Hints:
The complex is a heterodimer of chains A (about 260) and B (about 270). Chain A is α/β, with parallel strands linked by helices.
Amino acid sequence: MHETVLSVRNFSFRYAASPVLTDITFDADPGDYVGLVGPNGSGKSTLIRAVLGLIPAAVQNIHLFGTPAAAFREWKKIGYLPQRIGQFNPQFPATVQEIVSLGLLSIIKPAFPKRRTAGEEEAVMLALDLLGISDLRRKMIGELSGGQQQRVFIARALVNSPEFLILDEPTAALDPDTRERFYELLDSLNRKQKTTIILITHDIGSIGRYASRLLYLDKRVVFYGGFDDFCRSADMASYFGDYSQHIICHRHDDKGGERGAL
Amino acid sequence: MELSDLLSYGFMQRALIAGSLIACACSVLGLFLVLRRLSLIGDGLSHVAFGSVALSMLLQAHTLLVTIPVVLLASAGIFRLTKKTHLYGDAAIGIISSCGIAGGVLIASMAGGFNIDLFSYLFGNILAVSGPEVVISCVLCGIVLGTVALFFRDLFAITFDEETARTAGVRTEAITTLLVLLTGLTVVLAMKVVGIMLISALLIVPAAASLQVARSFQSSILLSALFGVLSVITGIVLSFFLNLPAGATIVLVNLCVFALAATIRLLKSPS
């Protein structure tokens, strides 16, 4: 029997008196590719931060790999790209290689400042190659463009070959070509390595094309399930309007032959 | 007098050994503090050190026996205050700092006013460092530098991005507490080198200079340590030959190194 990667049950969270998330329930199983969408302020990033224990005392009813989130320590299984990464100090004196190697922290102990091992070097180079930025490895992070920086942070999230990848608006700074290649990379990780993915995005067209499940959040779960259910649902058509539903379902149909029915 | 003659003096050997080690510890920690925008923590803790030096004089106890625990408590206090009251770090530093100064002035007046000993701590007197003080400084600097080496990657990770570091399994609160406590210990040691008034320069300036020219995180750590040690050695030697106060000379040399590094950066920048 496979172990559920993420289980959220009746989870609610509020900032002071304002409810941010109410009665959230959903599971992500191994190999799921969940597109997490919703309007600004719908609680998408808050939900992910709660799942990762980044909001203190907000982890009740959340389990990661069968372990209560508060007690979860197997961080090597997780790769995370936060939304706020664009706010880092651009003068920070670190090379691309140094930043990407930070993603290996969860699998390398103790943390002596010894030279990186051959295995570490190889993992870093592989991640840089995957994102097409190996030529930038000795560059300072502050010298790169926004899109290049985002690729570095994506490489950091991928470098430890995580079983569960959580990406919060990863394509915001990417040009259309890079964005498409990135979606194809995620698709390949999901299909070949069975990496479980939660992808927060406003790019609903791409979600329809690549993800296997859709979680629509608006302070509560508006919809969670496969695309067939979503596309056939009259409730969702009336909620989203025909146009948005069409964008998601049309793109999904494009890919449907390859992915199979959901 | 030749430079070799200078090195034959015992007090000069002690000053150079203790000063270099303390400068190295200050510069390495300073880089993490500057990048985490905690630069002024040295200033705040030095004011607490002033209060605790006054207290040690009132109690007629050894200075280090009083200042180390008091400054470490204040370091932890700044961290707890920031966490518990959601204050910005600079406000917490300001509160602890003013407590230190106010307490120090009150205690100093109870102890019969400011005397020569207290002034030597205010403005530093590295040339008067004793043999046992050199040994204590070596041991404590070894502890500081060894701890930084042991937790280097964790410190690097939380300095760059605390949130992602947590999801990589770094115990961010413990590492931040460790950084602040090590800073407290280093501030106590640095009192002898440049004096309470100028400690923050020893923490901030070498790190700021290294950030002008470094091309990686590892090189910025090494350059910061190099600039700090170089400034202390040059400052001590210059102060001896020119009959200047050592603490102030060290800080001015530090500032010259920063100016040089900033000029190099300007010359190398394309625009």
